[in-house]
TrEMBL record:
Residues 101-110 have a biased composition (Basic residues). InterPro entries: Hva1_TUDOR. Residues 45-103 form the Hypervirulence associated protein TUDOR domain. Residues 1-110 are annotated as: Disordered. It comes from the Bacteria. Residues 59-71 have a biased composition (Basic and acidic residues). This is Hypervirulence associated protein TUDOR domain-containing protein. Signal peptide: none annotated.
Length: 110
């Protein structure tokens, strides 16, 4: 195995005994619960918001996607265990697809 690269000045030294957790970086942000919507509570017609290019965007859920499909101009790799939601922006009228953890439920749907 090649030696580790030198540690940049001012950076903490790497602990030789440190082993990264195999699950590191795979935590679903929706599990924290505070502002993330649980996918069991999301339904077609719900008003939601999400971040896009640093801005809050509002819209409505068009449909729940539970299988690999084409939506919003891309391939969506969803399943019943890991659904995704197609949403329509109130501002632009365009559709996008997001995982439940990226959506924030807003008030009542109409």
């Amino acid at each position: 195995m090649p030696p580790d690269p030198p540690v940049p000045r001012g950076a903490p030294a790497r602990d030789a005994a440190f082993t990264p957790c195999p699950d590191a970086g795979t935590e679903d942000p929706g599990e924290k619960g505070a502002t993330m919507a649980s996918d069991k509570k999301l339904r077609k017609g719900d008003k939601v918001s999400w971040k896009s290019h640093g801005q809050d965007v509002g819209g409505k859920i068009e449909k729940k996607i539970t299988e690999r499909t084409e939506a919003a101009g891309r391939t969506v790799d969803a399943s019943s265990e890991e659904p995704q939601y197609e949403v329509r922006s109130d501002n632009s009228g365009k559709t996008a697809v997001h995982k439940p953890g990226a959506l924030h439920k807003k008030g009542k749907s109409s």
